[in-house]
Amino acid sequence: MCGAPKQGTGLEGVDLTTQTVIQGQVWHDGAPVAGAYVRLLDTTDEFTAEVVTSPEGEFRFFAAPGQWKLRTLAPVGRGERVISAEVGINETTVAID
């Protein structure tokens, strides 16, 4: 099961020795993309969760360890990134072409 708090908030109170956090930013043409939809998909491309990026283009998911796909949809285009997440913080950037 996945869920995400308000994007851009800190991780106070989160036990990073037991939680898997996938977070990062969405970028296009050298700038962060606010209001983009970021979808978390499992290894079979099954939809798991979706969040909207913060004004700074930030997103965050709490997920199980393993391989995940991040798919970004925004008015300026689409982007995709595969990440192998481990327990702790997993940082990534999704670029929109």
Task: Describe the fold and architecture.
β1 and β2 (31-32) form a beta hairpin. It is built from no helices and eight strands. The chain has one domain: Immunoglobulins (Immunoglobulin-like). The model is unreliable at 1-6 (pLDDT under 50). It has strands at residues 20-28, 31-32, 37-41, 47-52, 58-63, 66-74, 77-85, 88-95. With 97 residues, it is an all-beta fold. Helices cover 0% and strands 56% of the residues. It is globular, with a radius of gyration of 12 Å. The strands form two sheets. Strands 1, 2, 5 and 8 form a four-stranded mixed beta sheet that branches.
> What about the largest sheet?
4 strands, mixed
Total strand segments = 8
- Indicate the proportion of strand residues: over 45%
Unreliable residue runs: 1-6
Question: At the fourth CATH level, what is the homologous superfamily?
Answer: Immunoglobulins
Q: Which radius of gyration do the C-alpha atoms yield?
A: 12 Å
The number of domains is: 1
Q: Give the CA-based shape.
A: globular
How does CATH name the architecture?
A: Sandwich
CATH class: Mainly Beta
What is the count of DSSP helices, taking H or I runs of 4+ residues?
0
CATH fold naming: Immunoglobulin-like
Mean pLDDT: 90
Question: Structural class, judged by helices and strands?
Answer: mainly beta
Helix content: under 10%
| Quaternary organisation of the protein chains | single chain
Give the CA-CA distance, first to last residue.
Answer: 30 Å
What is the element string, with H for helices and E for strands? EEEEEEEE
